[in-house]
Amino acid sequence: MAFKQNMTDLQWFGNTKFDTSSSFLYFIQPKQVYKWSVEKQWKGYHILVSPVLLQEYNIDFSFFQYEINEALFLTEAEQHHIGTLFLQINEEYQKDNYELDLLIAYCNLIFTYIGKCYKRQFNTRQPLYNKIVVEFKKLLNTYYKSNINELPNVNFFAEKLDLSTNYFGDLIKHHTNKTASEIIQEKIISEAKNRLQNTNKTIAEIGYELGFEYPTYFSRMFKKHIGQTPSQYRK
C-alpha cells in the first residue's frame, strides 16, 4: 500500500479534472513490476503487508485488486486522517515489542476508511462514471449482435472499458445499485425472452446462441429467474 504526497504529474495514475489533490493512495500486488519517473521531491509512506497475514486475519477488500491508475485521490481531510494512521502504525512498528494485532487493527482501520473514500471519489467523478455506465450498457446491448457464442461476463466488459474487474464492478454497483453481474443476467434473460417469443428456433439453438454450453444449463437458469422453463414460457 502506497501513500504519496506532493505529486504534481499525476496523469499516468488516472486522475481527472474532478480530482484536485496532489496526494493519492494505491495498492501494488505481489510480484507486480512498476517504476517511477518524477522530477520533484515527494513524500509519503509504503506499508508492505504479507498476503498470508491478510488471509490469516480474514482481511479482504475489492480495491486490493485495483490497478495503479485507479488510485484514490485524497481530499485534505482524508489526507490528514490517513497520514495520522500511517504515523501511528510507524510509531508502533518501531517499538522493540510491537503488537502485531495492533498493527493489523490500524491497517484494517485504514482499509475501511479507504473504502469510504473511494465511495466519495465515485460520487465526485459521477459525470465521468455515468458515461462508463452508459458505455457498458451500449456494449451489453450490442454483445449478441456480434455473434459471440459465449456468455457475457464482467471481465469482458471491464477489459473493453480499460478498467480492472474489481474497480469496474464497484463503480457499476455504486452508480446503479446493481452489480454488473446482475445487469448482465437481466440482459441474458431479456434476450432469451425475445428469441423464445419471436423466433422459431429450438430451445437448444437459442441457448447455444446466448452462450450456454448445454441446453439444460439454459433451461435451469431461465426457470430460476422466471419461474418457468423456456418451453412453458413459449406456450
Automatic annotation (TrEMBL):
<dbReference type="Pfam" id="PF12833">
    <property type="entry name" value="HTH_18"/>
</dbReference>
<keyword id="KW-0804">Transcription</keyword>
<feature type="domain" description="HTH araC/xylS-type">
    <location>
        <begin position="138"/>
        <end position="235"/>
    </location>
</feature>
<dbReference type="InterPro" id="IPR009057">
    <property type="entry name" value="Homeodomain-like_sf"/>
</dbReference>
<dbReference type="GO" id="GO:0003700">
    <property type="term" value="F:DNA-binding transcription factor activity"/>
</dbReference>
<dbReference type="InterPro" id="IPR020449">
    <property type="entry name" value="Tscrpt_reg_AraC-type_HTH"/>
</dbReference>
<dbReference type="GO" id="GO:0043565">
    <property type="term" value="F:sequence-specific DNA binding"/>
</dbReference>
<keyword id="KW-0805">Transcription regulation</keyword>
<dbReference type="InterPro" id="IPR018060">
    <property type="entry name" value="HTH_AraC"/>
</dbReference>
<protein>
    <submittedName>
        <fullName>Transcriptional regulator</fullName>
    </submittedName>
</protein>
<keyword id="KW-0238">DNA-binding</keyword>
